[in-house]
């Protein structure tokens, strides 16, 4: 049985806790207009998860990407935060961890100040927020804060959980379908976070080796 005192659950942000597609799409369109550079914003929001620079390299010369990333992040709060709703079951999932006496941790590839703005806007108050980490890099924060479980929507989140020795709980709400998440090594795949509280109850009750 899992001790409540030892329970720390990590969550990804984009397409796990928040539906950032409307906000990110609007921000890419604004960046396109500002720079007179074509960006297929509808395509870009189908592949959320990796760092911003991984997307910008598709639209700008490599030498311009750092400056474009800075400009995007500067524009982002006024354009993207209010436009991005919570995912189904997100608040309830975090509440379930707290009700169990556990600690919540958000680990995301998103620029940390903007991640915090999203969470604050939606009234979500995790115990810890760490930004600017992707895939296996997320293991750094997951290990530091002792996360037993990491919940995410991308195969990169699965890799991060496994690199940290955490249980990988995947939600099929992002760009990666359930089969792809399972093939990447997810220990558990849920349709969405609405199923998480029930799963957590079973997880806590199960004996551990």
Highlighted features:
209 residues; single chain; 6-stranded parallel β-sheet; alpha/beta; globular; 10 helices
Structure, described:
- The chain is α/β, with parallel strands linked by helices.
- Helix content is 44%, strand content 11%.
- The chain is built from 10 helices and 6 strands; from the N terminus they run E-H-H-H-H-H-E-H-E-H-E-H-E-H-E-H.
- The chain has helices at residues 21-35, 41-44, 52-56, 65-80, 90-99, 112-121, 139-144, 155-164, 178-183, 196-205, and strands at residues 8-11, 103-107, 128-130, 149-152, 167-171, 188-190.
- A 6-stranded parallel beta sheet has the order 3-2-1-4-5-6, sandwiched between helices.
- Strand 4, helix 8 (155-164) and strand 5 (167-171) form a beta-alpha-beta unit.
- Helix 1 (21-35) packs across helix 4 (65-80).
- The longest helix has 16 residues, at 65-80.
- It is globular, with a radius of gyration of 17 Å.
- The protein starts with 7 loop residues before the first strand and ends with a helix.
- The mean pLDDT is 96.
Structural class: alpha/beta
Spans of at least 5 consecutive residues with low confidence: none
Side by side, the strands of the main sheet go: 3-2-1-4-5-6
Number of helices: 10
Biggest sheet record: 6 strands, parallel
The average pLDDT value, as a whole number, equals 96
Helix amount, in percent?
40-55%
In angstroms, what separates the terminal alpha carbons?
A: 9 Å
Radius of gyration: 17 Å
Extended strand count: 6
What letter string, H or E per element, gives the SSE order?
A: EHHHHHEHEHEHEHEH
Shape: globular
Percent strand equals: 5-15%
């Amino acid at each position: 049985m899992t001790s409540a005192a030892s329970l720390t659950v990590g969550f990804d942000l984009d397409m796990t806790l928040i539906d950032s597609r409307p906000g990110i799409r609007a921000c890419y369109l604004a960046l396109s207009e500002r720079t007179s550079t074509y960006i297929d914003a509808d395509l870009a929001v189908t592949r959320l998860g990796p760092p911003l620079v991984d997307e910008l390299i598709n639209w700008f010369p490599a030498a311009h990407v750092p400056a474009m990333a800075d400009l995007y992040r500067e524009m982002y709060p006024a354009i993207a935060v209010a436009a991005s709703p919570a995912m189904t079951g997100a608040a309830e999932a975090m509440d379930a961890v707290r009700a169990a006496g556990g600690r919540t941790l958000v680990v995301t590839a998103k620029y940390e100040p903007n991640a915090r703005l999203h969470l604050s806007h939606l009234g979500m108050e995790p115990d810890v927020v760490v930004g600017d980490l992707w895939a296996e890099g997320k293991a750094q924060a997951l290990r530091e804060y002792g996360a037993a479980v990491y919940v995410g929507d991308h195969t990169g989140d699965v890799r991060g959980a496994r690199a940290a020795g955490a249980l990988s709980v995947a939600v099929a709400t992002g760009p990666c379908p359930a089969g792809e998440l399972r093939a990447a090594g997810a220990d558990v795949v849920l349709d969405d976070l609405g199923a998480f509280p029930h799963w957590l109850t079973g997880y806590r009750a199960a004996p551990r080796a």
